[in-house]
Description:
Elements: H1 2-20, H2 28-31, E1 41-42, E2 45-46, E3 71-75, E4 81-83, H3 85-89, E5 93-101, E6 107-116, H4 117-124, E7 132-137, E8 142-146, H5 147-152, E9 156-161, E10 164-165, E11 175-177, E12 190-196
Parallel strand pairs: 3-12
Antiparallel strand pairs: 1-2, 3-4, 5-6, 6-9, 7-8, 7-12, 9-10, 9-11
Amino acid sequence: MKRLMGLALLLVSALIFASCSTSDGISGATESRYQKLEIREYKGMKLDPSIGPRDNSIKGVQNVDIRTYRLKVSGLVKNPASLTYDEVIALPPYEKLITLYCVEGWDATILWKGVLLKDIIDKASADSSAVTVIFHSVDGYTTSLPLQYVMDRNIIIAYSSNGITLPAQMGYPFIVVAEDKQGYKWARWVNEIELSDDPNYKGYWESRGFSNDADIK
C-alpha cells in the first residue's frame, strides 16, 4: 500500500511539473505566449515571446483597422505627411535584436524588424528648431524621445517581432523600439509622430512622475 501511495505521489508530482514547464525549462505560461510561426532563436540567442506576461496599456489592447490607418508626421516639419501602412513598410527594412525592459521587473529579448524613424522623419523634413520626437498612440498614450537620440542610434519603428507580424498586444501596426530605454518609452499603436522644440515634453507616465530620460541603468 505504501509503495502504491508513493508511486501515486510521484505521478501527481510529474503531472504538476509537466503542466508548469516544458522539457527545455520554459514555463507553461511562457510557452503559451509564443505565437504560431514565431521563431525562438536567433544566431544562438534565445528569443522571448513577442507578447508580454500581461497587458499594462492604459486602455487595453487596441485593434487597429489597417484599411483606414494613417501614420501622421506633424509638428515642426516642412512637409507634413500622412502615410498608409504599406507606404511605411515599403521603406528599407532593418532588423535589431533588442531587449525590452519593463519597469514592472520583467524583460524580453526579441528580434524586431521595422524601418528607421529617420527615414520617416526625412520624408517630412524636420525644421532646424526640432529637438524632440513625440509619439502619439491610438489610445491617447504619448511619450517622447530626443531627436538626436533617434537619429544617432538608428531607432526603428517595428512592424514585426520574431519573424511574425507584430501582434496587437505589442502594438500592431507599429511599436517604437526605444533601445536602452525603459518600456514606457516603447510607444505602441503609434499613429502620429510629432516634431517639437520642447526638450522637456512629458508624456503619459512621465507627467505622472516617471523619469523623462528612462535610461536603463
